[in-house]
Amino acid sequence: MASSTPSPAITRDSPRWYEEYHAEAVSPWVFPPPGEDSVREPLWTTSSHGVEFSAVPGGDAVWIVARFPSGAGTALRVAYCPRGRLAVVEARRTPSGVRLRIDAALGAFRTDVDLAGDDHPLLHVTTTLRPSVPTTVPYWPRDLVVLGEGSAGRVYARQEGLRTGCVHFSITRPDTGTVFYFQNLTALNDYAQQTGTSLADVVGGTWPELGLALPASAGGALRPGHDTVISDAYLAFSPLVPEDDVAMAEQFLTATAEIVVALPRRSPAYVHWPDLAERSLRDLSESPLCSMELRGNRFLNAYVGDAETPPESMVQLAVLLPLLEYAEWRREDIPLAGDLLAGLGRFFDAEAGVMGRWLMSEKDRLDASEPHKKPGTMDSWYLYHSLLNLARLARRGDEPARTLFLDSLDRAVEIAHRFAYRWPVLFNLHTLDVEVALSGDGESGESDVAALYAHVMLEAFELTGDRRYVTEAAAAADMLEGLGMSMFYQANVTLFGAAALLRLAQITGEDRFRRLTHVAMASAVNNAWLWECDYGHARHYPTFFALFPLRGAPYIAILEAIESFSAAQHYLRLYAGDMPKWMTVLLPEFCRGLLTRAGSYYPPNLPEAVVSDRPRVGAIDPQLWVPLEDLHDGWEQAGQVGQEVYGAGAAFALVPRQYHRIVHAGLLVFTDYPVADFAHTGEREARLRVIGDPRFPCRLRLIPAGPAPLPEVTVSVAGSPGTLPGTVTPEGHLDFELRGDQTAVIHWRPNEGQHT
User: Is the pTM here over 0.90, yes or no?
Assistant: First the structure.
């Protein structure tokens, strides 16, 4: 079997941003070495940007071999028949590659090879199998082999759990080159459904054998006479080996964006978030399962029906901030927001001199049933997350929040110094003793808290004008350099941190902080679910471009998703100058995906069988418009953790960002991409600019803001003649299609009797 010698694991104190491997042996599934059998003539050859490609038969397999100008090479196994030779019955050139038809005892294979790429080769290879008999798959070898005896290389990213099926690596011996391998797992849903398997952890491997290994059948078989996709691989090739984690991150993001552009697209469903926000507000305000009253103040529970756990500061603030944004959008006060504001001061820990996690009067109820459920225990990200939200309240003019924030700053800085800007998972807020040093993966503590701390420090600078907080932010940011993909600990924290680093670059004039945001973005995208899971329960909710909440988390969660959404939009609007192409592809597509997916967290939107009836925390009320915490692999039910009250700010955050009011026209303007520069530019005209790549469409929907029908309205694109055609939806809305980076001009004529 294959073996390799991995480098020591990355630790909190290690500067290494990659894993290094040296091949010491290969498995029996790589004989003879592909592309090194001089007797066999290649079936097809071509070149692109200096990389040579060929299709080579090899006994029980057919390979696509790629050779860099340096001599480094890889081989992709595109057809395989164990214990049986293959017969290539057709090798027909196509305008962009070759089509292979291959017969074997197992059945018939068809492989389509396409080659594209503007600046470097992008190889796309799809293989389908039509079995001759019902077929189970007890084992399948990895499909990508690094060529060269004694090869060595660096691996920067690989699939973990349900994340993107990718491997990003460089070959460093005997020759050099970099490969980004991406398996479009969406195309493998049919295989998973037939065989009863999960597509988690199917891409990875041990050097030099990497890529996809089909999961072993779990009680199902491939149907005879039915074409099943068994691989849909994209490979991007670069002669450059990244010199640091910034170069690696930019290479990773560029390749990912290029492949996202090439992937088949689905039209996202529309969710009418204003209605959902009102239902959610009603249930949060009225259901006794969502909140409790203690000594005259009202506090939200963390989970529906969980009255045993004392209230937490993060829970109140995570709902309060978007609720205030929503109240401002609605142009009327919301009583629940006032209730939550009134109780915030009761979380201040006077002994520690900082905002605490637990309600001080109730902390003795904690039973230590979990590591964090102890009176003095603080999770690092909780501390600074709550302080960030207090600062946001202070900047909105809330004086009690300003006092709480400023009174917490000295201790917040002292804690940062105590841990040298490298935070553990749990520590004691009073003694500063570490209680849990490393996260579950054993590699690091909460590595991205340094970026969140920088955000808090910059908020302190904005509120006080004290330059020492900028110095603190820069000192924390310095500790993020060299972390690579391990910068990510928690999705919302990483993306909040990216925006902070961008602000830091603008304040200090040091561009290295801006480029460090690219590492933050790469580490977040590396923790994304970049495929649609259409088997089992997941057929009822979209998963493409979901971010996992934590490194190693087995499910996606609503709080981290919605805060990442808000942070990504803030980052895009803050970014000055020309955006890299990857940015205009990946961040708007992430935002678009969430607008549909977030609706699937609400139990009334899911079939009863999809939702667990035995949550780990609290209870699930399937009638409440309060989101579940967790969506899983399609073979697992949703809501296994619980119904997450602190994620209920989702609807309140989405509406103000995606629905723009034109009050005197009686219009709501919805887009499913982020927009900039929305403004009234005339008595009966408004404009907005879509942030995104022009290769992608953006939905613009015009919606009546009240009972009156839509006014007479036209939409045009600035600088283009004529108007866009609109489509009337069943709800009576009007849909238009824009493109990324276009400016839309909306004209209206009031309905009779309507004032302008």
Answer: yes
